[in-house]
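Hi everyone,

Forwarding the result from last night's run.
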Amino acid sequence: MKKIVTSIEFLKKKIGCNTYHIESAIVAITLIITALISQQWRIERIGVLAVFFTFGHVSVADRLEEKESIRQQKKWYKQDDESVWCYYKLERYYYAKEICWFAYFVLLGARSALVGVVVFLLYWPWRKAWRKYATPSTEKQS
């Protein structure tokens, strides 16, 4: 996983973009290829858009969860009305819903949606690896 993080860091520096741009491009390309292979482009393109926009949502939610976790670990932190005390539940619900969606999409035969589930199941381990291995200078624009 460290090699993938290093490759993404290199690409970010070369292109001059943020991590989420590269993540989004990889997801979009993967979904478009899946839809084209399925030979059901008319209906799969709706699935591609739905999965892509859901990925954007997940990408932002992950970063918000990360910042809230860091904020609550600070020595000066005091829980108040502005605290998001349940941030830690995000991961539980995330995996539970993806497992349910996977079963549902298998039964429907929705290929783009199935690829989306795989993308989402791999996304959080990817972000954990990114936080672990990314150099501090590239991590700020994650």
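The mean pLDDT is 85.

Cheers,
N.
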